Amino acid sequence: LFRSDAAVRVGLTQAQTEVLMKSLQQMFAAHPQANTHTDSLAEAVSHIDMCAQFCTSCADACLAEPTVDELTYCIRLNLDCADVCAATSRVLARQSRPDPSLTRELLAVCATACRVCAEECERHAVMHEHCRICAEHCRRCVEVCERAMVNTAIVV
Description:
Layout: H1 5-9, H2 14-29, H3 38-64, H4 72-93, H5 100-124, H6 129-150, H7 152-155
């Protein structure tokens, strides 16, 4: 079951995380053309969607920093990553006649966006805790995307 340290930091208890994951799994299983691997799909969608929220929050925190002029590239990559993750999670959540090649390409782009964002956030992690948290979550999102790309049950 997916539960990241990031979920803990935003105040989600183990029980809340499990309820959210179970609800997402139930929603996917209720679909008339349900994917047979709803647990894996729910994990991927929730993790990627959460990454979008972390990147958006990190960009906002960067904007509030006194050294915002030194963080413009980080902000740009945070926002790019957030948009890519949001689009990817929405496409993955649609189970009606998915196109496997499109899904794999989106996952690959999502992994790239998360990797680039993590690298930039890591440059600022010593000075800015929000960048450290964001980088950590982006690294986990890369792993989730890479697992989903090879898990044909999710993308077919």
